[in-house]
Design brief:
The chain is about 50% helix and about 10% strand. With about 210 residues, the protein is α/β, with parallel strands linked by helices. The chain has a five-stranded parallel sheet with strand order 2-1-3-4-5, with helices on both faces. It holds the Pfam family Response_reg.
């Protein structure tokens, strides 16, 4: 699903999506409020979300889509934010509120398609999330950063710190000497234990709690 108030841009995205044999275009919206309604009806796997839109912006729409009723379980709908370089702070806020990745509007079609596939598969996106987070995060004042991941097992803490670097499943698997399937299992457990929804929020959580160095 594509959410953007520029109809020509939506048309271009639809053409690109429909050119892929493994993708299906299920709908579009021109504002965030309408997007929330359409997502509830059509349940797309991935939503491409603009930030600046009338009625409701993309940050609030992302929050409502990924946590529709304040539920504790992560939504199956993944949001990829569409942005310009001038919107970095807004992109960071969208990551905090449930977006899984971002793509600049001047990105190549190949990068956009790769991002969609990675997010849908539960993998880290190719975008440099860690760098964006480092530039925008405000660290918590806690004197005991480790308390932020106290619920995790030692192995999960290892996977958490690797994921916080923005590493992909294959990279984490190689670094931790486990299979990619094991990495996915650990990531799901980490998200559930920490009350997080996306891998992007793992990055934010790590930097906010000073578990990663700047």
């Amino acid at each position: 699903m594509v959410v953007d108030d520029q109809e020509l841009f939506v048309y271009g995205m639809r053409m690109l999506i429909e050119s892929q044999p493994d993708f299906e275009f299920v709908g579009s919206s021109t504002d965030g409020a309408e997007a929330v309604r359409v997502v509830a009806e059509s349940r797309p796997d991935v939503v491409l979300m603009d930030i600046r839109m009338p009625v409701m912006n993309g940050i609030e729409a992302t929050r409502r889509i990924t946590r529709p009723d304040g539920a504790t379980d992560a939504s199956t709908v993944r949001v990829v934010v569409l942005t310009t370089f001038q919107q970095e702070e807004a992109v960071f806020q969208s990551m905090k509120h449930g977006a899984s990745a971002f793509v600049t509007k001047d990105a190549t079609p190949e990068l956009l398609l790769q991002t969609i596939r990675s997010v849908h598969a539960g993998d880290a996106p190719p975008s440099a999330l860690a760098e964006l987070v480092k530039r925008n995060v405000v660290s918590a004042s806690t004197d005991a950063p480790e308390e932020a991941i106290a619920a995790l097992t030692p192995r999960e803490r290892e996977i958490f710190l690797l994921a916080a670097k923005g590493m992909r499943n294959s990279e984490i698997a190689a670094a931790a000497f486990v299979s990619e399937a094991t990495v996915k299992t650990h990531v799901r457990s980490i998200l559930a234990k920490l009350g997080l929804e996306t891998r992007a929020q793992i990055v934010v959580h790590a930097y906010e709690n000073r578990l990663m160095t700047f």
